[in-house]
Amino acid sequence: YSFVEKDLPITKHSAKTQYAEQLFKEKGLCAECHILDPDERAGKVLFTDHTYDNLGIPSNPGNPFFKVSAPYNTCGKDTMDLGLGSRLRDPEEYGKFRVPTLRNIALTAPYGHNGYFKTLEEIVHFYNVRDVEDFPPAEYPETVNKDELGNLGLSQEEETAIVAFLRTLTDCIK
Predict the structure, then answer these.
(1) Model pTM?
(2) How open is the CA angle 87-138-73, to the nearest 5 degrees?
(3) What is the rounded distance in angstroms from the CA atom of residue 105 to the CA atom of residue 140?
(4) What does the DSSP 8-state code read for residue 7?
(5) Cβ atoms 83, 53 nearer than 8 A
(6) In the chain, which residue ranges form alpha helices assigned H by DSSP?
(7) CA 155 to chain centre
(8) Is residue 47 left, alpha or beta, with left meaning phi > 0 and alpha meaning psi from -120 to 50?
(9) Do residues 141 and 56 touch, judged by C-beta distance below 8 A?
(10) What is the pLDDT of residue 11?
(11) How far is CA 135 from CA 59, 96, 103, 171, in A?
């Protein structure tokens, strides 16, 4: 299947969608955290396993919090968001953030815990090549997940297919 900008959006039940969903589940490893099984309590697919993970996202120099003065921000641009670890006071959890739902993901830019990525294309590309292309260092490198992302080997066309699939997760509002 060819996934180019003129082909978007794909419909929720097309052959292209099925191909993209297969990439999402298998080669892209997205469903390792953004699970496709119905949530026990909600009875619906929520596209999250409700866990916490450090994806290796760089610090966002445009983060408005960096401009907040003391006593709220005592470190200025050197502030580091430790995520779950700051709440638990556990260094093994530093830099980990809750795996978000992907429902309506096309409507919730920017992406990443600190808004580093402006588009779905940017964050999907990061997941794919974080460990093989030159990205700034992770905000908190010690706990970065190196098992499920960073060197997935997706082609540009496969990245585009996954983004197209993500766009199908937007609710229809009437």
Answers:
(1) 0.86
(2) 50
(3) 25
(4) G
(5) no
(6) 15-25, 84-88, 120-129, 156-167
(7) 18
(8) left
(9) yes
(10) 55
(11) 11, 19, 27, 33
Cβ atoms 116, 58 nearer than 8 A: yes
- The amino acid at residue 163 is V
pLDDT, tens digit, 9 for 90 and up, residues 1-21: 334 344 444 455 678 888 999
Tokens representing residue 35 in the block: 């699970």
Structure tokens at 160: 């585009």
Q: What is the pLDDT of residues 33-66, one digit of tens each?
A: 999 999 999 998 999 999 999 999 999 988 888 8
CA angle 73, 79, 81 (to 5 degrees): 105
Token representation of residue 116: 């580093």
Return the residue matching tokens 């996954």: 162
- Crossing angle for the helix pair 156-167 and 15-25, nearest 10 degrees? 110
